[in-house]
Structure formats: structure tokens, C-alpha cells
TrEMBL record:
Biological process terms in GO annotation: 'de novo' UMP biosynthetic process; pyrimidine nucleobase biosynthetic process
Organism the protein comes from: Gottschalkia acidurici (strain ATCC 7906 / DSM 604 / BCRC 14475 / CIP 104303 / KCTC 5404 / NCIMB 10678 / 9a) (Clostridium acidurici)
Domain of life of the organism encoding this protein: Bacteria
NCBIfam families the record matches: pyrE_Therm
Protein name as it appears in the record: Orotate phosphoribosyltransferase
Residues annotated as binding orotate: T119
Domain called Phosphoribosyltransferase: residue spans: 44-160
Amino acid sequence: MKSDILKVLQKFGAFQRGHFVLPSGKHSDIYIQCARLLQYPDKSMEFIEIVAKKIKNSNLNFDIILGPAIGGILISYELARQLNKPMIYIEKVSGKMTLGKDFEIKNSQKILIAEDVITSGKTVSETINLVEELGGEVVGIACMVNKENITLDKKIYSCINLDLKSYEEYECPFCKKNLPIQPCKI
């Protein structure tokens, strides 16, 4: 199954090889761009269905699905549709995560965070912090790809767990070989 998922990611150009500087600032030889797959609702729906089944089978109790912009919005929408739950999103405004539009998180509401790709966990951590500041409780994290098979203090429900590495610039083996940096592109 894992190899089938990787083949689909490669087929749609979502699994890219080269030397990349990721949004986190870390370097990697693999870039996962789920937007390539999300262009095709029928295919992305199948991936998200795998995640939805894992969540259903766990009997996770939650009130709202929250997606960080941009990648998490489409994932949270489709998960919300499949799980019959409401969804909201957050976005960065002046470098700070804030709730989008007129959304609110009520005290003690149980939140499932939905992302496209988790690499370093930075965006998820910022999202958890915002939810907790607003009085909510994060009960789990859903994603299409857990790129570095990262573990957080919340259960992660992913379509696929990979075990890929990323590096700080000073330790990057690709920089040491003077390999050119490629743009992370959609």
C-alpha cells in the first residue's frame, strides 16, 4: 500500500527529488507538494478517505476540523465532508497565526488539526498553541503525508508515513556537494 501511495504521488508530481530549501528553512532531497495531487479531487479524495477511515476506526471524539492555510484548508474541507463535521481555518497575518474570517473556537472545544504535509511540525505546533490560547483542546492531527515520520504529543492520522530527513543548512550534505538548490514549485 505504501508503495502504491508513493507511485501516485510521483505520477502527479507531488513527490519531487532534488536539493530543496523547505518552507521551514531546512534542506532536503525530497519535496512533497500535495497541491499537485489536490488539483485532482477524485485522487485526493481517495487519499483523504484513508485518513478519514483511520479517524473513524479510532473513535476519536472532536467538534471541529481546523486547517492551517494554505495546504490544510483543502484537506480539512474534504475531511469535514467525509466525517460530517464543521471545519474552520487559520492563516498567518503579519507573521502570526490567527483564525480566519469570523470563526471562533469555544472554550473546551475538541479540535482535529488537518494538514497536507507535516515535515518539521512547526506549523502544527503553532496551530496547537493558537488553539490552546483560545481555550480549545487539540485531540489529534490528520495529514496526507507525515514526511519525516515525526511524532508529536498528539496522535497523528496520516495517509502515509515516510522517514525522510531534512537538514539545517550548515549540516546539509547536498550543500557540501555544491548541488544547486531547486525551487519548491507547484
